[in-house]
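User: Show me a protein chain along with its predicted structure.
Assistant: Here is one chain, sequence first, then structure tokens.
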Amino acid sequence: MSIELLPSDFYGFEADLTEKEQGAVERLRAALAEMQPAVADHWHRDEFPIDIVTPLAQTGALGFNWEETREFENSAVFRGWLALEMGRADASIGTFAGVQNGLAQGSIGVCGSPEQRAEWLPKLASGEVIGAFGLTEPDSGSDASLGLSTSCRREGDEWVLNGAKRWIGNATWSDIVIIWARDEADDQVKGFIVKNDTPGFTTTKIENKIALRMVQNADITLTDVRVPDSMRLQGANSFKDTARVLKLTRAEVAWLSIGVMTGAYEAAVNYAKERKQFGKPIGQHQLVQEMLAKSLANITASIAMCTQVSRMLDEDRQGDAHSAMAKMFVTARMREVVAWSREICGGNGIVTDYQAARYFADAEALYSYEGTFQMNALIVGRAIIGKSAFA
């Protein structure tokens, strides 16, 4: 199969995908191009374009990682390219899919019983059911392994959940949320599939965001929420199991960040070819070309790193430090690229009529979620020194 590579894929990494994988990436790219005109409007209105869920599902972009849902055998590198494409279109689209795929489905795929997998994974993959992932709390983020305060206790065949969650993507309109809570009996973290209409479960949309405005983040309050034991993730018995889910998604956030810097870079290239100053397009000026060259180098280095760390995942060689380094490095490079892209667009770079501004704002959220730069650096540092520097 002969594919048309993105100009921003300077070393042609996409050509290394299998023919089926290349075809799936092309279908997703075409579908996202059709959705693109509506993105800025939804970003301004702080609303998620719910009507994109079905087209995403039809391209196979939802549910591609599980035996119960995937159309064909595929690689972690391929799944990374899908995340890249979604980030290239808009970070909020990629974040929605990351929650739906990696976190909600991932929790069930990694920790769920065969019956739970069979019931929920196909519904999540088709978009019939929207999922969310409830780990972060108002007072617990990076220290979730120790600081998680949402509680659960067993009463007969039910579990009673109490506590609060914050920054939970998709939660205002999802059907289910994976809630992680600490068992009062053994102090271990357990996971639950909680339906949003369960009595005592309430969500409040987080307003006034400057990044990922289309993502519907919510505060969640759980007050004596009763969940049957059949909805407890049967394979989630400690935070180590939660970490198994997070391991699947951290590198894909790095891939998503490549998409964001790619979208910003492409917007800057188009602007540099059209905008004229001093009698010629600004792309012909030396300093602009330098920023574009550095941006392309950042994109290329990031794809190379993520390609290798994804291969390691497929080969069961990826450790926490490997994915942490990818997330740390790529999001920092993304920050540089979106800043240069905004700078190339000058004053127009601060208005969302020009796409660079939207990528610039959204990058800040990706830099922080799924482990801050500093937390991921400490994970890598622990691997280097052999001793933890965590406070």
